[in-house]
Amino acid sequence: MSSYADICYTGGQLSGAIPQVLLALPFGLVLFFYFFAIIRSNRHYKKWPLARTVFWVVGVLLAVFSVAGPLAERAHFDFTAHMIGHLFLGMAAPLFMALAAPMTLILRVLPIHLARHLTRLLKSLPVRFVSDPIVASLLNVGGLWILYTTGLYTAMHESLLLHLFVHVHVFLAGYVFTISMIYIDPIPRRKGFLYRSIVLIVALAGHGILSKYIYAHPPDGVSLAQAEKGGMIMYYGGDAIDLVLIFILCMHWYKSTRPRELAEKKVSGTIPLAARR
Amino acid sequence: MAAKVGNQDSYPNRYAYLSKNLWSGFLFGVGFIAFFDEAVFHQLLHWHHFYDKSTTSMGLVSDGLFHAFSWFATIGGLFLFADLHRRKALWLMRWWGGVLLGAGGFQLYDGIIQHKVMRIHQIRYVENVIVYDAIWNVTAAAMIIIGAILIVRTQRHRAPEGENRA
């Protein structure tokens, strides 16, 4: 019983500085490492693109904003603030950070033997398994279903460990989901466009259905009015970010199927065929 | 109604991409009508409800899948359109046939299965909703019929201008 009490915090303590610092710190570190890597990379390679740097900064700031500061404080009692925070942490921040191609940057600056270890790790079975679009979608959207339809949402506000775990999971699952759908960085076992498109559609549907479910069935401790607002933020906010994801996936398809020679002659056979009538 | 000769000249490859023209239009049609539904009936007129809670759980799933599919289809259909253009394979009349078929098909499904059978929401929360339903579904059927006519008129054997009239 005492061991349970050790990790059992009241809502008041949870909104304090400790969880905010713990969650924001890793993002601060990766921001620092990214800049450090850019400086090293620029010494030997072509200048690292400014756009990618901006994406990383924006992504990290969105993530930090959602786990620390006024929005995170409000999220403890205001479900709409919680939902905005989760859109940032689980969707917007991962998208921006994936667009910043961090793995490409790491592989550039690591010494060769370490880079080889890293690529071997990326090709390992667990990483391949998790980065499959279906598994990534289940971890991402499935995790959200568990969070909002079970007692986990309430429990998260009472236990520091659960609070940390849920937030880390939301970010990581969002990131893995993003990189399983759009290939900016190198990824093992690339999947076809049709496969990714179908899984993406089903995952988006799962997200949209959950939004409407929350609208009608508020999680414990959330008022109906707040659940309605939160559900709509999740629905339309999710759509907005998904629009970017879909656009990038389609654009990659468009680039990959560019015909080698635009003036193809292979249709010349069809006209005599029609003239036979 | 016949396709313009100039159109045929700038898109000589279109007979090799008949189904792609159809699919591009169909996907865009489904996506566009869903977007129109969201923008006009949900956001501007406020006739449709986000969720009116008489929905069956099957309806919730169907609505979610169709919403996600249409969102994807709008963008995917336009990229297919761009692909047809760069391959000089666009057949605008056939593409419009696909658009009308997709839009009409989705509207009919929405009007009959989603509104009535699965009770996702009604077109408008008024007493004579049957009038709205009738207009909705007749419009959908009209789109399907016109779309089908356009698609039949743009088959391969009708390809060379003049020759199939001999």
UniProtKB/TrEMBL annotation, chain A:
Protein topology in the membrane: Multi-pass membrane protein
Keyword terms: Cell membrane, Membrane, Transmembrane, Transmembrane helix
Superkingdom as given in the UniProt entry: Bacteria
Gene Ontology CC terms, in alphabetical order: plasma membrane
Segments traversing the membrane: 20-38, 50-72, 84-107, 127-148, 160-184, 193-215, 235-254
Main location class: membrane
Name this polypeptide is given: Cytochrome c oxidase assembly protein
Automatic annotation (TrEMBL), chain B:
The keyword Transmembrane helix is annotated on this UniProt entry: yes
Annotated transmembrane regions: 21-45, 65-82, 89-109, 129-152
Record keywords: Membrane, Transmembrane, Transmembrane helix
Origin: domain of life: Bacteria
Matching InterPro entries: DUF2243_membrane
A matching Pfam family: DUF2243
Keyword Zinc (UniProt): no
Protein name: DUF2243 domain-containing protein
